[in-house]
Amino acid sequence: MANKGPSYGMSREVQSKIEKKYDDELEERLVEWIIVQCGSEVGRPDRGRLGFQVWLKNGVILSKLVNSLHPEGSKPVKVPENPPTMVFKQMEQVAQFLKAAEDYGVTKTDMFQTVDLFEGKDLAAVQRTLMALGSLAVTKNDGHYRGDPNWFMKKAQEHKREFTDSQLQEGKHVIGLQMGSNRGASQAGMTGYGRPRQIIS
To answer: Where does this polypeptide localize (predicted)?
Structure first.
């Protein structure tokens, strides 16, 4: 990958808008969660956008994070013993994390692209993906989440309703308000189509 120079004009404006979405407080919370979830051997990044990016860039910590949310023996991502140094291997590792996160239940709209992290294009999107993953882990409440449950919002749960056959039959005889009402409707005063209105002077 070629190193890109600074951007100017419209691209610079767009990039600065994206960078403003990055949340430093959220970064602290996510770092704390990752350390609690994966163990202290993952280390701690330097504060700030660049430190956060460098810490997660090779995909190993992300892979350990998603693996920690699964029971032993069903880890979705293979984590190499030595962190990958080649660019395409690192990007492959990040892609494996994204696939595992999607399988875990993170929606496509909450996912970042590999280049968002790797080239630092949109680290706010990386934060969004990690928030969605944390929220799902808290919501599932299957014993694999470690840390303070208040760090993440619980996702809304599906609330299924069961109706008996007689209740379903009764519902067929009710005219919903959206259908309107036929009370008071008549054709009084209507003229046939195409006939002119009679004006008597």
So the answer is: Cytoplasm
- The reported pLDDT for the residue numbered 14 is 65
In a domain, 199, yes or no: no
Nearest to 31 by CA among 15, 13, 17, 47: 47
Q: Is the pTM of this model over 0.70?
A: no
Within 13 Å and on the Cβ side, how many CA atoms surround 193?
Answer: 0
Q: What is the mean pLDDT of the chain?
A: 81
Q: Please report whether residue 186 resides in a domain.
A: no
Say if 187 falls within a structural domain: no
Domain count, the chain: 1
Q: CA–CA separation, 195 vs 201, rounded Å?
A: 18
Identify the CATH number of the domain in which residue 76 sits.
1.10.418.10
Count CB atoms within 10 A of the CB of residue 121. Answer: 17
Helical ranges in 121-177 per DSSP H: 123-140, 165-171
Indicate whether 136 belongs to any domain.
yes
Question: Angle formed by the axes of helices 123-140 and 49-56, to 10°?
Answer: 60
pLDDT band at 1, cuts 50/70/90? very low
Whether residue 94 contacts residue 114, with contact meaning beta carbons closer than 8 Å, is answered with yes
Find the DSSP H helices in the chain.
9-20, 24-38, 49-56, 60-68, 87-104, 114-118, 123-140, 165-171
